[in-house]
Amino acid sequence: MTALTKLTDTYALNNGTKIPIVGFGTWQTPDGQVAYDSVLAALKAGYRHIDTAAAYGNEESVGKAIADSGVAREDLFVTTKLWNADHGYEATKKALATSLTKLGLDYVDLYLIHWPNPAPMRDHWEQLNAESWRAMEEAYADRKARAIGVSNFRAKHLDALLKTAKVVPAVNQIFLNPSDTQDEVVAYNRAHDILSEAYSPLGTGKIFGIPELKQLADRYHKTVAQVVLRWSLQHGFLPLPKSVHADRIEQNTDLFDFELSTADMQTIDGLHGVAGLAKDPDQTDF
Ligand code: A2P
Known about the structure:
The structure is a single chain. By secondary structure, the protein is an alpha/beta fold. The chain has a single domain (10-205, 237-258), classed as NADP-dependent oxidoreductase domain (TIM Barrel), CATH 3.20.20.100. 38% of the residues lie in helices and 13% in strands. An 8-stranded parallel sheet has the order 3-4-5-6-7-8-9-10. β4 (49-51), α2 and β5 (77-82) form a beta-alpha-beta unit. α2 (59-69) packs across α3 (89-103), α3 (89-103) packs across α4 and α7 (211-220) packs across α8. The termini are far apart. It binds adenosine-2'-5'-diphosphate. This is Aldo/keto reductase.
């Protein structure tokens, strides 16, 4: 078990790459000044792990904030993701090159397949994932990505990928919070030494009104966000909280001066469905 003492503590991925245990999320952060300011605020607050995606449309602003922050590249962990329209061998190579250009980086620390089964490719998703993965394995060998992984994959998608993969995904980034603990996917990840990253760790903001969480937060003299992020860490997940407000960005780093009891962890585990559920990746319309 990784020590949970500070924001820059790391998990070791299955290829030995170290990854800071909390990442700054940028999904739904508008491109331009808002993305720029919030990433800069995050880096100032001590985050060293930034999560974006081609589909978020904010890679350029994220990259600009990284460049202007003065933080050394080797001290940063940057993730981006392959969008659905770019599945396939050649398209994946091109998409990564485009993301790197937008980010202004020579390499990303982690490159993920964003969704396993895009709607327009539903009849040949296995083949396309295998082809994308081959391109990603080459990018990994060429050091354009220090680690490669997937997002929103369930067991059947991972089983399919592992039939031809030479590199086991290092990460599976999924919708993961007290409202949907995705036990089956998490168990699969764990069995294959794949780190479970948690997007929407605060249920995209829907967990704040839950009375049980408010009571717990009061008892620990912490905020609901801090309790829920701590819950994520104590499960060994890697939460990616998103905010565009400097005070919340900072608040979400203050997770290391308390520990949830086993009983309180179980209470939070039992909140299934209070703030939405993960999308079924085989049923998406994109
Ligand atoms: P905002 O970006 O306006 O600060 P998730 O990380 O699960 O996607 O949740 C993000 C949502 O939760 C956003 O709407 C964000 O709003 C809000 N949020 C993030 N941190 C906090 C916090 N500490 N307190 C209240 N709301 C927060």
